[in-house]
Amino acid sequence: MKKAIVIGSGAGGAMAARMLTKRNFEVTVLEAGKAFKPLALPLDKLAMFRKTGLYFDERMIQLLLPSMRIDKQREMVMVFGRGVGGTTTLATGNAVRADEGLKKIGIHLDEEFNELYEELPITTDHQRFWSTITKRTFEVMQQMGLDPQPMPKLLRPGNCRLCGHCSIGCPTRAKWDTRELLEGIDVVTNCKVTRIDIGDGKARKVHATKGLQHLTFDADIILVAAGGYGTPDILRASGIDCQPTLFVDPVLCVAAPMAKARQDRQLLMPFVSHRDKYIISPYMDWLSFFFNRQWYQPMDGMVSLMIKLADVEQGDVHHNKMQKQLTPLDHQRLQQGVSDCREILMRLGANEQDIFLGTLNAGHPGGMLPLTPAEAATLHSPLLPDNLYVCDATILPQALGLPPMLTIMALAKKIVKIIAD
Prior knowledge:
Mean pLDDT: 95
Shape: globular
Largest sheet: 9 strands, mixed
Number of strands: 21
């Protein structure tokens, strides 16, 4: 039986591990984090301490939610997951097909997306749970010609408690994440990969640390799926260069006071409007709520709209630290999104002078080893040895401005089929 090492347990890693197992590989998944645990403390209890000034730095969220990692720089805050399930445990479960950039370079994933639609609990059957403010927002956006559409969700609606915890760990497992793909697969936690030995055109050995231990793993096939933040560091430490073409899909929320709106008790991102290089969706931004001083309203007394931007692919990551600045074009598109959101909120009854902005943050890093048309058939960069593949957002050719989870899983499926063939 051939051995496979998969580095990372998020969307790409977990799907690749499951697919390899079905093809009779002996699979070991190396995960830098621990088993995931959702935030256990009630948000309303934590909110009682906001006025004390206790919450002064976004990195403090890691004390309550160790699987959520924060990289803070002057312009924005990067949020990503480190634990079993990767960022899928902290994502809002959006099952969006976002492969336009892949199609442009000749990569077609129709078969893989169809398989995902059959295998996963993807649904829009959550509209019956929408609150009054969610329905009103949807209607206002329709009237403005913004064409809102219900968001496909990786969700079992009958288990949803409408707690608003989608982005901090679903307590009922109503929201699907990739931990379900890993059942029965050997997952080594707290195992941080440092480098891969490469010689004679082959990846030979994976080096990792687990506490004070130094571990090595041999395999016939190695897949790196440590995410858009982790994968570039591993590749560079192994002698494989990456490009300064980082995208992050920045998020900016626009909010306004609205008594008893209770958006805090709603499914996050229940519907979406697609604009030019950004989307708009209702979203309670917990990072801004706890750490941005402008967000002083009670958690049940505001309405918040998310702008998610497809940013210019320009930036870098070194040692899990982001080097990224938005371009003038990025700022121009963000401002257009802010204008759209202001108009929506005012039509909902908000006063213009009361509208406030959230903290600029991001959570979809990728693009530093982008696929090209020459690699459309192999999904394999010529910079990599024959038996080493990258299986996460690092290989996406352009920023999405959309949730990437479903697309990454479709790519993982395609890559494993190529390996098996």
